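User: My advisor asked me to double-check a structure prediction for Ethanolamine utilization protein EutJ before group meeting. I don't want to rely on an old file, so could you generate it fresh from this sequence?
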Amino acid sequence: MGNWKVATVAATVLTMVFAAGCGGKAETKTESKEIKIGGNFEMTGGVAQYGQSAANGIKLAFKEANAAGGVLGKQLTLIIADNKSEPAESANAATKLISQDKVVALIGPAASANVLASVPVATDSKIPLLTPTGTNTKITVENGKVKDYIFRSCFIDPFQGAIMANFASKDLKAKTAVLYVDSSSDYSKGLAQVFGDNFTKNGGKVLATEAFLQKDQDFKSALTKIKATNPDVIYIPAYYEEASKIIKQARELGIMIPMLGTDGWDSPKLPEIAGAAALANTFFSNHYSAQDKDPRVVKFVEAYKKEYNQDPDALAVLGYDGALMMIDAIKRANSTEPAKIKEALAQTKNLQVVTGMLSMDANHDPIKSAVIIEMKDGKQTFRTKVNP
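Assistant: Sure, here is a fresh prediction for Ethanolamine utilization protein EutJ from the sequence you gave:
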């Protein structure tokens, strides 16, 4: 972008701010025909699959909305900044989108650690941030205080951790479990805690907790120790790259018991790395299943495949649903002012999205259902749906 264009944009923004301060009529005075939304996503790096899928879902939702006449008579523009799957880069991306690109709201990042790094930037700038996929409870509430400008459109970790503990106890009849945790990830540690607490409440026993670090390649030493405890199930709350390698190496060591995971497993890379055979007898909690026969799911899957020539994973549908939530909020706010969008997001109620009916609770977390996926022949199959 040339310097004269930067100056023009800056002048336009200053005009809007001045007009808003003098009577709230900025939108009638500006000639802008677009609503700029920032997409802070993992386009490269360790969890690029997540960021790319979520961004694709948002792009599809925006394309459909724009084709139907836009929002408030304007076209939605998604400006993406690559956070490179790193917390520090996520904060930088948020800063760039807000200060340089002048977005009125942020969607993303995908991974909880990257969302948490972006929260102070959005909060200080009074720009609403909506993560479609970040499940860590601290994103929206910390030390009992709800973060005014921060929202999510996906379920939270305690919900999916409890779901899998109940599934292990009641469906798989497991009496003993081992937790294999990514000690470099708050996401993994938090989920392990919730699973362990609920599994114990159900009468089960956690025999051991083993740890690994993100980017580890060799898991056989810990897996050998796990094998010696002879558990009924292993719970691995982790992202797909490490989870797939753990599963593959566990099977090579003759560990054939059920292995349970989380939405972090959801990626086409899981069967690519682990191998279809190794994934037999594995299950994970997720936000939706492409095999769900709900008409909204069927319609979304068809539209996504037509647009991108690939099947949508959960991150794609969550990106799409997050975009629908943002669009709905802007329409109800009848404004592109960040403070008004923030208020409308907080008041979201009974919004029909692909993954179900969505309403915000007092903690800026949605009340919605989840599914459990079983891997068969390297493919995700719908096992059951769990309502909140």
